[in-house]
Amino acid sequence: MNKINFKKLGKSILIVLLYxxxxxxxxxxxxxIFLKDIDNxxxxxxxxxxxxxxxxxxxxxxxCKSLKKDWQNFWSNKKVCFKKAFKNWILGFLAMxxxxxxxxxxxxxxxxxxxxxxxxxxxxxxxxIITMVFLGPVLEELVFRKNFRxxxxxxxxxxxxxxxxxxxxxxxxxxxxxxxxxxxxxMQLLYIFSYSALGYFFAKAYVETxxxxxxxxxxxxxxxxxxxxxxxxxxxx
Length: 237
What we know:
The chain is mainly α. Helix content is 83%, strand content 0%. It is globular.
């Protein structure tokens, strides 16, 4: 039995490109032309919110029928879904912490993506809470989990591949600033294992309950607690 449906995989990759490249370009270009004189922080806020909302609408339209089924699965098994969400989030969080500690001991610094998120969070807290805690997790679960579900006929292969895709996406910020002649800078790429570990358990929650809403809960809880810790830490400094 073929474990990969390449036709559906191609569609899934196209949606990822839509999310990461096409929509950001189409949104940023007119904003850069017509609102070029506005403050940079306001520009970032308008552009990113527009990108999130447009992508979310597109993906919701594409998976409307399937999402109704997922919601029925979730609602009819609420207790099980919440237990699976909490269990897999704990496992993913612990795996991420252990891997992060190992990588930090080698690299000497946190992931670039994490560093940039902290900077944006302290500068634009309201915008960051909306995107990092709500819009981001929902959209990422749809694009990097739901979007690939039917492309793989093996649950294990689905969980591993989507975890690596999810992890790779979080390294995009690193690629822009990596000094390829500096071994420690290049070792930032090791953080793919950290994000992928978390993504694996998000995918596992999805598979175990047959509902994307379970993995959304994992993701929202994780990002929400991370944002809360950062905000509390910055307020105490």
